[in-house]
């Protein structure tokens, strides 16, 4: 079940990056990253209230997937304009930071023993991640 939501989120991220790139050219990285960050945070906050698998697919797959599309393209294009001598290194650091955290949330959902942790702990973790994003 969780792998399907992660796959949907990855597909939505991949499909949304073209639109994110065009919006970044038109409105700038600050505006695009702000709205994508709102989608990302809203997705995590709403994940604290899931009561069915459909909610997981909607909140993680669609909202978080759309929010993640604004983390790589605007950052990479901005970094490429800022750094000339170490452009490759800086782009690599942006890529590592943007994509590294993505699987950690779903891995935590798969590994946490539901007997040891209550639903309250998971829902408060989602709210915390949503607010911090």
General description of the model:
The radius of gyration is 16 Å and the shape is elongated. The longest helix is centred in the middle third of the chain and has 30 residues, at 53-82. It is mostly helical and 133 residues long. It has helices spanning 2-27, 29-47, 53-82, 87-100, 102-111, 119-132. The protein has one domain (2-132). Helix content is 85%, strand content 0%.
- Backbone structural class: mainly alpha
- The amount of helix comes to over 70%
**Unreliable sequence segments:** 109-120
Rg estimate, integer Å: 16 Å
Q: What is the straight-line distance between the termini?
A: 24 Å
Q: How many distinct domains?
A: 1
Hey, roughly how much beta strand do the residues contain? under 5%
Please outline the major beta sheet: none
What do the pLDDT scores average to?
Answer: 77
Number of strands: 0
Shape: elongated
Secondary-structure element string: HHHHHH
Count of alpha/pi helices:
6
Brief digest:
With 133 residues, the protein is mainly alpha-helical. The protein has one domain. 85% of the residues lie in helices and 0% in strands.
Q: How would the blueprint of this fold be written?
A:
Layout: H1 2-27, H2 29-47, H3 53-82, H4 87-100, H5 102-111, H6 119-132
Quick tags:
single chain, 133 residues, mainly alpha, 0% strand
